[in-house]
Design goal:
Layout (H helix, E strand, L loop, with lengths): L5 H30 L4 E9 L4 H16 L3 E10 L4 E8 L2 H12 L2 H11 L3 E11 L13 E9 L4 H16 L5 E10 L4 E8 L2 H12 L2 H11 L2 E11 L7
Antiparallel strand pairs: 1-3, 1-4, 2-3, 2-8, 4-6, 5-7, 5-8, 6-7
Helix pairs in contact: 2-4, 5-7
């Protein structure tokens, strides 16, 4: 076997670096093309004054139709574990132009303002929103029946899905494919905290979730995939969500 001298080694390293950069660039372009003009999902989290929590949910239940005539509501939940006195909802839009039109229409809708906004806003302490896309390898999978949801949020290292996407996909897929959990969707942040990924899971009950997690922790495939993905992870958190009576996702 012919040995490679310093010059040859340097040449190979340069060629390899160019190939890596080209591969990353190509994947980034593909992702941008997939997201361009694509459907996106707005995540909204409202913190409700503790003494107003029941009143806020009752008001929203009574008046939500004033809002859903303008755009599609994917789901609306109360946070049971992971935070207190919060509601979380997801809205679907076909484009940024559509969302701008919806917001303009709502601002001019006297019923929405008088019957809901003027009453609901004093009940809140804060509002937060985030624009997300479904990751290219995932679509929204509605659950088979009513249950509870887990929103697991992962803060990944900078670099985007071109860096950690493959490992993250493997970790999620191993949880979902053997039937440990029902995956509703995986969403990647576009506006808000960057390099953040949300996995939305469905379970029949909190106890069924606990049993599924215990089973997954004993699956060698899950353990190996999670270990690989965790090398790109900065932090994570989760919330257990209970659907409201008016939530499309139950």
């Amino acid at each position: 076997m012919t040995s490679m001298g310093p010059a040859g080694g340097s040449t190979c390293l340069i060629i390899f670096a160019r190939q890596v950069r080209a591969s990353i660039s190509t994947r980034a372009q593909q992702q941008q093309q997939q997201q361009q003009h694509a459907t996106f999902y707005e995540f909204r989290t409202y913190c409700v004054r503790p003494e107003q929590n029941a009143a806020f949910l009752a008001l929203t239940n009574a008046q939500i139709d004033l809002r859903t005539v303008h755009s599609e509501l994917l789901g609306y939940w109360s946070v049971e574990y992971g935070a207190l006195n919060q509601v979380f909802h997801i809205w679907k839009y076909d484009s940024y132009a559509q969302r701008a039109g919806v917001r303009a229409a709502l601002a001019q809708d006297p019923q929405w303002i008088e019957q809901y906004i003027s009453k609901a806003m004093p009940m809140l302490t804060s509002q937060d929103n985030e624009v997300t896309y479904l990751v290219p390898w995932c679509k929204v999978e509605r659950p088979p029946k009513e249950g509870v949801y887990e929103l697991a949020t992962f803060q990944m290292r900078p670099g985007g899905p071109t860096v950690w996407g493959q490992a993250f996909q493997a970790a999620v897929s191993t949880h979902a494919s053997p039937g440990h959990s029902h995956l509703v969707g995986v969403f990647h942040s576009e506006f808000g905290r960057l390099n953040r990924v949300h996995a939305l899971w469905w379970y029949e009950s909190p106890d069924q979730r606990a049993a599924s997690r215990q089973q997954a922790h004993g699956d060698a495939r899950v353990v190996a995939a999670v270990r690989e993905s965790s090398t790109f992870l900065e932090s994570q958190c989760n919330k257990l969500l209970v659907p409201t009576p008016f939530s499309p996702l139950k």
